[in-house]
Amino acid sequence: MTPERSMLDAALNYTSKGWRVFPCRANKKPLIQNGFKAASTDPEQVRKWWMQWPTASVGCPMGAEHGAWVLDVDLPKGPESLAALEAEHGPLPATVEQHTGGSGRQLFFKWIKGREVRNSANKLAPSLDVRGEGGYVILPPSGHLSGGTYSWVSSGAALAEAPAWLLDMVAPLSTAAQAAKTAPLTAGGTTPYGRKALEAEAAIVMNTAQGGRNQALNESAFALGQLVAGGELDRQKAEATLLDAALAVGLTEIEARKTIASGMAAGEREPRRAPEQLASAAKPVARAIQSTPSIDEEWTPEATKWPTLPLAAMPGFVGDFIQLATRNSEADPAAVLATFLTRFGVELISPHILIGETTHKARLFAAICGASSKARKGTSAAPVKKLFTFGESSGHIPAQYSPGPLSTGEGLVYAVRDELKEWKVDRQNPTGAWVVTDPGVSDKRLFVLDEELAAALNCTNRQGNTLSTAMRCFWDNGNLNPLTKSNRTRTTGAHLALVTHITVAELTSLLDAVQSLNGFANRFLWVYAKRRGVVPFPEPMPDVELDAIRRELLTLLHKGKHTERVLMDSTAREMWKYVYLDLSQEHPGLAGCVINRGEAQVMRLALIYTLLAGQNIITAEHLGAALAFWQYCHESAMLIFGGRETDPMVDKVLAMLRGGAKSLTEIHKALGNHDTKRVKDVLGELSNSGRVRFTSEQTGGRSKTVFSLCENRELCELCPPTHRLPTLIRIIRLIRKV
């Protein structure tokens, strides 16, 4: 067995036991974004990681979720320090143990609920480190920088609990928590003091004004969590009472449960008991607000949820090429896949599928968006360009190719223009005749690989620029006939496909002019690209393997040339009915504008996957591959555009209302006394869409209208992408099982 195979098998073995793993360098540094926080038990994800980094070490997070923490006995003084502690307090029990590659020992102990073991170095004793919550270890058979390897000493042993003396050293209980061990409780686990405290906190939530209720709920949950940890209050009773109060004032159940759980967990880390003078009398309690951390103090940045490309999107021949193209490269597989599918589709002008009266051809537009120039967007195009380089003996004439840049609609039309005739009367034709003044372009296939979408978006802002209109027409049906007096160049049946690149920073800077983007953004598949690793010396694709892929590609292109209308088999039709509702639903915000052609995009992708399988009938497998890639594009669009509105003023109003309810006058002033009609139009739009509600309040004189967020709609818009595609994800899982 090769070392590469050994590492993959080891990682998969750990996931089968429920251990989350992630790839690391030999120096123990993570190879993936977000490090140990992104560790996974998903075998497909693990295979992708170790296919990308075959010799990577296996990292494993410690802490409550994993159910274990580690005592790291390091050289040079670790064995001596541990021996001194055991001589004083008693020996450690037999437990799971491994030897590190540097000749140290790591002892695994069971995680005890309520005892939070944190990372430490040399705090316990010289060369004795602790790996707990927020830390991780390297597992066998990973290599060590010293040249050694990690190995199990007793992997079959049971995971033991650390003795009390060691646990008290690594996770000491606070004074309040120690006292809670012997605290007297009334029936049901709640003291009179705790009961009064619960009543008081529920009243606080019930009487908080709209706009501050969620924060009040968090603070109350924190205060009661302290009493739960102090032995004064039963947790289930506290949670149920707070939930009833939250629902009574209009908070949603999902939001309330999340806030209560977060506040309780934070409070339990700081146990609190009733003051002695209050405990006996059970007087009503008013919590010490100063002991409650504010929301801002507790806030931590949320890790970005990067889209994950499902393996179902790379079946058979497609997967063979993507694997070859990215084997020794920094190119993102998703970006290579988008470029490949688009380039393949433009080669075949005849295949199509009919949906009602609409004809969809194998025509795609893809926008590859990276966090920066380091995302290797351009690198993804190189292997595709090389694959589609054919010799004269191949028998295939490829589509026209243009590197751009995109500038005007007229420029695109000219590249695939029809024959132009004029009626002329001259000596040769005294009575008049049609004369060809421009033979036009006979091959209407055109592939555009434009590296600068930002420049094209800037062009669309110019008065009279027709690029946006042309892009829509080329994607829809390939026909464009400008009704202008000076320009009579037109095109019919053009088959144009486009791949273009942009960075997130460039896109963000252009969002103030979103009208230009709205014009054709939903014709694009938005693909988020990341640098997949550091490869100082990328290697070209081996000629032997590339030639074999190219021969198969030519065979598929030859079959595709003779294919016209493509149908769906019965299983695919049933599958399509199942996912159609999700694909065709409306989505709010700018992200909604971008993904609102999901059903058409999936159908075109399914057509291309069918042709790449050498078939003329769309099956469930082809549709499943299309849905898998659309899932990636959907998640990319949510990551790139999520949280933004098509109208910048809508963004400003929503941000303002997140701070609490506001009257029309307050909103108007906060917007710099903007045009009143414009403000009213925005508020009317938000109200009609159910995202903002309004109430009339009586003042001394005339009543005033007060606007506030509809909390359930805000929660829906903040849901991560995976919550927005429930049916698609079920389909992907079904395909994976098959």
TrEMBL record:
<feature type="domain" description="DNA primase/polymerase bifunctional N-terminal">
    <location>
        <begin position="11"/>
        <end position="166"/>
    </location>
</feature>
<dbReference type="Pfam" id="PF09250">
    <property type="entry name" value="Prim-Pol"/>
</dbReference>
<protein>
    <recommendedName>
        <fullName>DNA primase/polymerase bifunctional N-terminal domain-containing protein</fullName>
    </recommendedName>
</protein>
<dbReference type="InterPro" id="IPR015330">
    <property type="entry name" value="DNA_primase/pol_bifunc_N"/>
</dbReference>
